[in-house]
Amino acid sequence: MNGKEREKVTAIELLAAAKEARKNAYAPYSGFFVGAALLAADGEVYGGCNVESVSFTPTCCAERTALCKAVSEGKREFSAIAVVGGGRDAGFCPPCGVCRQMLSEFCGRDFRVILSSGDGEGEEVKIFTLGELLPEAFGTEKPFGTEKKK
Fold first, then answer.
1. Domain architecture of the chain: domains with CATH
2. Which residues, including other chains, have CB under 8 Å from residue 104's CB and lie 6 or more apart?
């Protein structure tokens, strides 16, 4: 999706993009496939998926994949992320602590985190703010993206 083509991306559209990104997940060890779609302030959407390693420590979550992809392309301001995990009836898959902390580097407390309970009939959607999920971010005196990052 291009920001020039779309003025506003809905939560449902962002979840659909996350489900599409999940198709590229590499999870041969856990079998838990995760997709994320990060919405930049200009309307551009960046997809990411989890990428596992046999030694697990260097594994990269879908949320960080999307964030690093966007930052590597010059983006610094974001408004929402959608995260889906596992597939049908997998339940909600909120970002891990490391992903929450990474998001707080660029995003404000009001940044939206959109979660889906699965792909099937009766799918539920929950929306949180990053401030709700990470009330005390580690680090700077002004956490949660309050200072412009260059």
1. 11-124 (3.40.140.10)
2. 130, 134, 137, 139, 143, 144, 145
Dist CA 142 CA 125 (whole Å): 30
Provide the pLDDT for residue 5. Answer: 39
**Known active-site residue 63:** yes
Angle (CA) 40 44 48, round 5°: 80
Report the pLDDT value the prediction gives residue 87, as an integer from 0 to 100. 62
Extract the runs of DSSP E, i.e. beta strands, from 6-104: 34-40, 45-49, 78-85
Query: Scanning the structure block, which residue is given the tokens 């990474």?
Result: 102
Candidates 63, 132, 136, 141; catalytic one: 63
Residues of the chain with pLDDT under 70: 1-7, 87-89, 120, 140-150
β-sheet with 34-40: strand ranges across: 45-49, 34-40, 78-85, 112-116, 125-129
Burial 61-78, CB ≥16 within 10 A → b, else e: bbbbbbbeebbeeebeeb
